[in-house]
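Lab notebook, bench 4. Continuing the backlog of folding jobs that were queued last week. Each job is logged with the same field layout so the records can be merged later without manual cleanup. Today's entry covers DUF58 domain-containing protein, a 297-residue chain. Filled in by technician R.K.

JOB TYPE: sequence-to-structure
TARGET: DUF58 domain-containing protein
LENGTH: 297
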Amino acid sequence: MLTDAQIEEMMSRVRKLELKARRLVRESFSGEYHSSFKGQGLDFDDFREYQHGDEVRFIDWNVTARMNQPFIRKFREERELALVLAVDVSGSADYGSESLSKREVMAEAAAVLGFSALQNGDKVGLLVFANEPILFVPPGKGTRHLLRLVREILIARPNQPGTSVAAACDFLVRTLRRKSLVFMISDFQSHPIEKPLAKLARKHETLALRVSDPLEAELPRAGRVVMIDPETGLGLHVNTNSARIREEYARRTREQHEYVAAVLKKNGIDTAELNTRTDSLPALHKLLKKRSRKRTA
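JOB STATUS: finished
OUTPUT FIELD FOLLOWS
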């Protein structure tokens, strides 16, 4: 159970995230979000006279017969989306060699996306998961609702700190009845991932934010240390001065990274790489610009 001091510290972080996310959305982010994702369909808007180049399939023959000249149906895009943030709060999410942990980076990205969605009239929901789904908050609107989601990301404490992207994907496939926009936010240190992600991507528009820490990619020279897996609690004595051990560590990390990247690409899941050392906004900008180009292509 959290102490009063811990709760106050957590709420202070939420308020800071709110201010930062609102500023980012106001200054540059909301327009890119709006142009990057389609609504759920088209709603009838009005009739107008047929013009050269209009699609014949939109001609309304009843109105055409009454007016003695061709008229077509006009449509407008139904903008409202359901944005669902699926956030990994497993043991490895609390690691951070810089000022922020991976969990804090995830919460910041979720806040920016959430405020962008709300400004565009969309609903925002949350799935917090680790070894299993921990909490699901159905999509809703309003600042108070979104701040609750950010708070849940920061305070969630799983009973089992392992990671199961598969369990999260299966839960979303079973639970989300309406086609939704899903952001899977994780370090993806999980197996298996290919089939579950493929199933999720077939049913919902799925994107991935992959969060890492620089020290995870390359083992520093620090002598003999005990490395503890935050998801299993197991410790291993390692001589980090050994070039062979550092090379093997780097090779395995690189292979894991390439495997996840290949799985995401194979299933058409666009990805942004975030880390605890650099600002997340440029990577999010790049991702949304890519989506916008796809939409207008």
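OBSERVATION: The chain has a mean pLDDT of 84.
SIGNED: R.K.
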